[in-house]
Known about the structure:
Layout: H1 22-36, H2 51-54, H3 65-72, H4 76-91
Helix pairs in contact: 1-4
Amino acid sequence: MFQQQTKAKELIDKNNNNTISYASICAHYIHQNPLRANLATDLAQWKFSSYLDLAGLRNGSLCNRKLFFDFTGIKEDEFIEESKAMVSKDRL
């Protein structure tokens, strides 16, 4: 399990042409895993998710919210709307 080779990919979109950045797609993918596994029916239901911190629904220490948005260049309000839209698409 720990011996497989992994690949690293830079998560910053250097072109930033108003598309969803790779960093944002990765975060959305991770946040949707509990939904896909039928462990939750809404992003805010999974208490182990960083989505709660990033969406401002919890003031916890699971992740550094300011650092995430500053480092990735993702706008907080856009991230939350993208999260909702991506779940809607996936759940159809």
